[in-house]
Amino acid sequence: MTTWRLPDHPAGWVTDGGLETDLVFHHGIDLPEFAAFPLLDDQEGREVLTDYFRGFTEVAADAGAGLLLETPTWRANADWGARLGYDDHALRRVNHDAVSFLAALAEEHVREHGGETLVGGTIGPRGDGYQAGDLDADRYADYHLAQVAAFAEAGADLATVLTLTTVAEAVGVVRAAQDVGLPLAVSFTVETDGRLPDGTPLGEAVQQLDAATGAGAAHLLVNCAHPDHVRPGIEASAPWAARIAGLRVNSSRQTHAELDEAEVLDEGDLDDLAARTRALADELPSVRIVGGCCGTDVRHVAAMWDGWTPVGGRTK
Known about the structure:
By secondary structure, the protein is an alpha/beta fold. The protein has a single domain, classed as Homocysteine-binding-like domain (TIM Barrel), CATH 3.20.20.330. It has helices spanning 19-27, 43-63, 78-83, 88-113, 137-154, 167-180, 202-213, 227-230, 256-261, 270-283, 298-305, and strands spanning 13-14, 66-70, 117-123, 158-164, 184-188, 219-223, 244-249, 289-292. An eight-stranded parallel β-barrel has the order 1-2-3-4-5-6-7-8, surrounded by five helices. Strand 6 (219-223), helix 8 and strand 7 (244-249) form a beta-alpha-beta unit.
């Protein structure tokens, strides 16, 4: 069981937004298999990523908050990597490089703005982030071990696995992280009814995960859902709700199926999204990390943090 817990920054932690949708729809960058990590392999791609992440360093500086930089490696695992021509060796290299890349940006942020930073390695699901996968936790542990190990070797402060659809995969990734001694955060996604794509209520998923791993996840988040879709799954007074430390929300109220088919980006109503994200965060006793997911960019995250901090619902 890990003893690492998210540092209790007095103003919370800013993280980024919907990297892939921002690059595809706002910058016209082709991302085969919706993978951003190949951008690390050329100078032009690194410049694009640098500009993207620097926007969020400014949000953190303006908010007086901590900065959680998370690697663009949501697809940098074996099955997805193979589709893009990356073998195990190449994936290990690019996952290392991703941590080093953000560590340099974190150092730049500290020099220019001071404050605290964390660099996290991002893990994505083995399958489609909107479809429930199989239920073999041990198989998931074996599958995700290589990426978790690469982040640990590269010196990441933690890893976060995003957009999980089943408890089984969450259990597997936690076991892999425990094997290499790297703190891990787990983020489930939910449908419009607040349940995981396999139908499991969010609260049951949190409790099942903790029971199976000895509360081995450092903390939990919910991502890739509009605040109105997360809300039906929340019982703010339930003990399990205290395990949720972060929200990374979608701009759109569309279902996952509708988003999968969308050819035009639904950016939502920026002010409304910020207000609803704040309200949801204020209901949850442990939320400290706030950022965006599909359809959001630095404007959305800046609006969420403007004059507000997710610590105890205080307004600055």
